[in-house]
Each structure stands twice: as C-alpha cells, then as structure tokens.
Design brief:
The chain is mainly beta and 229 residues long. The protein contains one helix and 19 strands. The strands form four sheets. Strands 1, 2, 5, 6, 10, 13 and 15 form a seven-stranded antiparallel beta sheet that branches.
C-alpha cells in the first residue's frame, strides 16, 4: 500500500545519506601529534601505513615551523628515496600509504631535508600510476593539493630522490557517494562486512579507520570508509 511504499522510500533515503557520510571521509595526519622516535618496521598509525625497515628507517623528530594556521613542533623524515619491490611493486620502506574509495584531494606540507642543493620531488602515486608531485627547495616550506581521480585504490607518498621532511598529510574524499540505494534500481543491502586498513575482517566496526563492504541484492558490491572516534 501507499504507506509501505513511502516508508520504504524514506529508508532508502536514510541509507543514501549514511553512504554519503561514509564516503565523504576526511583525515589529517599532523606529525606534531605523533610519538617521536625512529620507525624501523612497517607500522600503522591512525590509518596511515608507514613502510620502514631497520636499514631504512622513517623518523619523527622535533622541528618548529609556522605555516598558515599551523604551528608545527615535529616532522616526519623519510631519510631517503622510497623503495618498492622490483618484481611485485609492493612498498618496502620510506613510503607512506593509505586507502581511498574513489576521487580524493591529497594535501601535503613539507620541506627539503637539506639547507642547500637541488630541488627534490615528493611523489604521490596510485599503484604504478602517477597522481602528482610536489617540488621542494632548500629553506622553504611548501604546500600542495594533489587531486586523485579514479576507483578505490591505495595512495603512496614518498621521495623520488634523497630526503624530504613532511609536517602534514591529509586526504579528503570528494567523489560522488557510493553505496546509494535507489528505489528505481530495486537494490537492497543483503550483507555488510567490516575490515581494518590492512584487510583483516572485523566482527563489528572498530575505533579508527574502517573499510565497509556492502553486498547488494543484485550481486554488486559497494565499498565505503568510516573513521570512528
């Protein structure tokens, strides 16, 4: 009857709104908030994977900088060029990575690691695909927004050559919300699964960044992200 149809449409609108909230995810990593010290193995902090090894560490140490509305007290030091496995393409060390579910704006604030020398390039890639880069020069702090357009993927941030220091890294997903269910399509959620940032399945959403997989009645799959405080 008409009442049931109206209630069903209202439920679909609520589901669409929730999906939109999850997809419009934003996260900021201010390295002034990280614990100081050397990172000698791959570590996940607040949804950000820091790829490192005992021979090629990533460090967090003190450095005071004022830029726009920020007053930084620490920085992340890559210490050298990012390394990927030559055969598999997997990240090995001196690389930062995080997942996105679609179109996103990545913002970086950083500096050259030396007081002199040639400019250096901070690379932002999606797998083997170049997304953009930021050039840093000695003695200057630089900010750049880099736009990623595409499907769900993992974003990698690293130095193309020699040391670069980062003070802030952020991501804001700005694509069209996925997971919206429309009455016309007749799609319904038949199952929901939760995963953490390293792909481990969870029984329920956990604190931090969650990957949410919704299986629809027509067999399609919608993936979104939620950051739970």
């Amino acid at each position: 009857n008409l009442k049931i149809i109206i209630m069903k449409k209202q439920l679909l609108l609520v589901m669409a709104f929730v999906a939109g909230v999850f997809t419009a995810n934003a996260q900021e990593w201010n390295f002034s908030d990280f614990t100081a010290g050397d990172i000698a193995e791959t570590t996940v902090i607040d949804g950000l994977t820091i790829h490192a090894s005992s021979g090629k560490k990533v460090s967090i140490d003190g450095s005071k900088k004022t830029f726009e509305d920020y007053s930084f007290t620490q920085r992340l030091k890559f210490g050298g060029t990012g390394g990927f496995d030559a055969e598999t393409g997997e990240p090995i060390d001196r690389i930062l990575s995080f997942p996105v579910s679609g179109n996103a704006t990545i913002t970086v604030i950083g500096t050259h690691a030396s007081s002199s020398g040639d400019p250096r390039s901070l690379m932002v890639t999606a797998g083997s695909k170049d997304v953009g880069s930021m050039e840093v020069t000695p003695g200057e702090i630089t900010k750049k927004e880099i736009i990623y357009t595409g499907e769900a993927t993992t974003i990698y941030v690293y130095s193309a050559s020699s040391g670069i220091n980062l003070y802030l890294l952020s991501v804001k997903e700005n694509g069209t919300p996925s997971g919206i269910v429309s009455a016309e399509a007749g799609k319904e959620v038949v199952a929901t699964e939760y995963y953490n940032v390293v792909g481990m399945r969870l029984n329920e959403p956990a604190k931090g960044l969650n990957i949410i997989k919704r299986i629809m009645s027509d067999g399609s799959v919608e993936t979104t992200k939620a950051c739970i405080e």
